[in-house]
């Protein structure tokens, strides 16, 4: 059945190199993003924009340090300032990635017309040398009164791919949608 589905949908089929861990995770993460956004959740790109802004600032600092008009002995203090700023902004960027994003693949706003006031944080883990893919859905603001309890599943990726590396989207969509439904059905926590 999986091979038949792969043959019929080969034009739009998502194919992964089964020997490449990152290729498999990338395809699954992209599919999760498609599924969540198709359910009415709009992607929240504010965190990505902050990271891009910090990266741009870091590049501008490096360019100023490289192309400053004075030569080395004369621009020593300026270079030290640029190096300090470069390290500070890079540290801030890494702190945001480590503390806020962690394994997140998608941040969302709440769906239009929803009773909840928080979006979702969808994160995934796919350890090296393992076939177990873990998908977690949690509230973007876990301290909110409307935040649901985080839900997750851990399953083998072998059930979602054919032997040729083609993702059987129907099976994967079913599993992810069931997880989204579990999150939506969770009773809200009380303060």
Automatic annotation (TrEMBL):
Membrane topology value: Multi-pass membrane protein
Keyword Transmembrane: yes
Annotated transmembrane regions: 49-66, 78-99
Gene Ontology biological-process annotations: protein targeting to ER; signal peptide processing
Domain of life: Eukaryota
Subcellular location: Endoplasmic reticulum membrane
Protein family per UniProt: Belongs to the SPCS2 family.
Listed name of the protein: Signal peptidase complex subunit 2
UniProt source species: Durio zibethinus (Durian)
Upper taxonomic lineage: Eukaryota, Viridiplantae, Streptophyta, Embryophyta, Tracheophyta
Gene giving rise to this polypeptide: LOC111310148
């Amino acid at each position: 059945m999986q091979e038949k589905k792969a043959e019929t949908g080969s034009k739009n089929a998502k194919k992964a190199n089964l020997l490449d861990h990152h290729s498999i995770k990338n395809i699954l993460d992209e599919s999760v993003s498609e599924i969540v956004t198709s359910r009415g959740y709009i992607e929240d790109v504010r965190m990505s924009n902050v990271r891009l802004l910090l990266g741009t600032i870091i590049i501008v600092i490096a360019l100023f340090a490289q192309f400053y008009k004075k030569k080395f002995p004369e621009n020593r203090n300026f270079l030290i300032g640029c190096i300090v700023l470069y390290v500070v902004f890079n540290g801030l960027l890494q702190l945001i990635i480590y503390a806020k994003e962690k394994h997140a693949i998608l941040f969302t706003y709440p769906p239009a017309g929803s009773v909840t006031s928080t979006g979702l944080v969808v994160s995934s883990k796919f350890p090296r040398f393992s076939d177990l893919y873990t998908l977690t859905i949690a509230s973007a603001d876990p301290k909110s009164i409307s935040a649901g309890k985080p839900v997750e599943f851990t399953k083998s990726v072998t059930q979602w791919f054919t032997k040729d590396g083609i993702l059987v989207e129907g099976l994967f969509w079913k599993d992810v949608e069931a997880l989204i439904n579990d999150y939506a059905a969770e009773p809200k926590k009380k303060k």
